[in-house]
């Protein structure tokens, strides 16, 4: 009797499982979906987050040095003002600061022309620069899209440089025909439009910049700067940062807010990262629920396929053969879901990269984690159904259903 | 003298309950090589239970089951499964074909647990299908086959691997009388070609053409002579 051992080839174990699944296509597809969604999310979330971070990092790196943004702070009353001569103080007393420039908020409304009601400013604000701060574009890391920035003459006459969004809102697309805009009743010649600020100083996108001299004569204009921009070599950053408040507002240094716009980017990165982890935890839960779904369907399958199990036992299948069939089926089912999930996830990553014009980053780690999880979940989900199937009494299993 | 390929010695089977139900009572039965035996009895008389004992699908409460001269009721699952797969062929009333597989693929599963390669399995399956007269239906799925054709596929599957004995439990139970006659005819042919076959039925009419008939009632074999194959029992009916 020793020769009468049942034997099942490994390739047959797998092909039987695949046949079992492909003969129930719709059920297989629906059951695998939970795993697919879980893994697709896992990969997509990571891929999108990494692409965003890589982009932000590239932009920060491209800036090359650090910028400081000095404002009066949130305090109320006169103490919170930056001193009118603060920019000059900073420039002369802190050697390491490069390109210090202040802007002054002007209480005026910008419109395309007289005919547009004054309330319709389209969100455009008006700020002014002094003749001493013609290098404003340096510390704000800006550049001119077309036309030019202010020079010593333009700040003394009604002329204006527009942020990208301000230009759009006011309908300025080019300088052909010397366009003008109306600022609280006076026509200003548009002499230039700035490129869009993408990550830093995005406030300037909606600003119309005029000369302080003109602003002073025409409008209500404060003596105190509303903000000071400065550029610092990264290694001096911390030292410089500490001594700025005393120079900018000696009376109330505590009121002065000195921030690093790039810091905000870094914080955003951390938040993105945290958010991604939370979403991925959810994706893992979806994955686990997908696994439970597979276990569920496999248990039903064992009940439905009682006759098939009986037949296989009569054909010589051992308990182990029956158990392996269900475990492998469950694992293959889960892996199919996993592979579909990888395909969907990677497509999303590529689609996003294309949409954002980023470089696509395939999150290999999470891709592997997802597939490994699908494998493990599938095997795990198959354990109990496989045990039940293998425990079925052959005589019971071949008996016609009552 | 022809050797017994299958022998039941004093086999009883009870199912748990209060009181326990004794379905088979001290059955003695010997099937020799080359025999075609009909086991007949009314519904509930214990025929399927008897076939389960003969097919090592279940273990007797007491007594011995010998297949090829070896007592199998003490064997552990892997050996028992091996005996079923290698020495026995089964045909069931409800065919038990896998719906997703073609006729050839279904028949080929007869060698699946022999560790035979797929190619060889299919070749043997085609040959067996020719034998049962289904050479023209090789690639059909069960859904496209008639009841009689399905049962022929199941019979071809049972023949694969050259079993010592084919056990058929009500193989015509789901078929009309015309088809039933054809299946009985097929069993007679296969028997002539050398297969040892046990066919269970509750239909007395079917047993007319059978060389040997064992009648069972309430778990007992009616005719004492039926336990021995070599006498002519036609007059017992
Ligand atoms: N697993 C079981 N548990 C309890 N009783 C059973 C079981 N299997 C069969 N029986 C009983 O044994 C008797 C014989 O059943 P069976 O062998 O299927 O008869 P047949 O095939 O001749 O119709 C019936 O009364 C049936 O109810
Ligand atoms: Mg029965």
Task: Give a brief description.
Chain A contains eleven helices and eleven strands.
CATH architecture of chain B: 3-Layer(aba) Sandwich
From the alpha carbons, calculate the radius of gyration of chain A and give it in angstroms: 34 Å
Question: Roughly how many Å apart are the termini of chain A?
Answer: 36 Å
Whole-number average pLDDT of chain A?
A: 87
The radius of gyration computed from the alpha-carbon positions of chain B, rounded to a whole number of angstroms, is 17 Å
Distance between the termini of chain B: 26 Å
Please tell me about this protein's structure:
The complex is a heterodimer of chains A (402) and B (237). Chain A has 402 residues and is α+β, with helices and mostly antiparallel strands. Chain A has 2 domains: 10-60 and 266-398, no CATH class; 66-261, no CATH class. Chain A is 52% helix and 14% strand. Chain A has helices at residues 10-22, 25-63, 86-93, 164-170, 212-218, 237-248, 261-304, 306-314, 319-356, 364-391, 394-398; strands at residues 66-71, 98-106, 110-111, 125-129, 144-147, 159-162, 180-183, 186-194, 207-211, 227-232, 257-259. Chain A is elongated, with a radius of gyration of 34 Å. The mean pLDDT of chain A is 87. Chain B is of the alpha/beta class and 237 residues long. Chain B has a single domain (4-228), classed as Rossmann fold (3-Layer(aba) Sandwich), CATH 3.40.50.300. Helices cover 29% and strands 25% of the residues of chain B. Chain B contains 6 helices and 10 strands; from the N terminus they run βββαββαβαααβαβββ. Chain B has a 6-stranded mixed beta sheet with strand order 6-7-8-3-9-10, sandwiched between helices. In chain B, strands 2-1-4-5 form a 4-stranded antiparallel beta sheet, covered by helices on one side. The longest helix of chain B is centred in the last third of the chain and has 16 residues, at 177-192. Chain B is globular and about 50 Å long. Chain B starts with a strand and ends in a 16-residue tail after the last strand. Classes of the chains: A alpha+beta (402), B alpha/beta (237). Chains A and B meet through helix 1, helix 8, helix 9 and helix 11 of A and helix 1, helix 2 and strand 6 of B. The structure holds adenosine-5'-diphosphate and magnesium ion. Magnesium ion (MG) binds at residues 47-48, 170 of chain B. Residues 15, 21, 23, 41, 43-49 of chain B line the site of adenosine-5'-diphosphate.
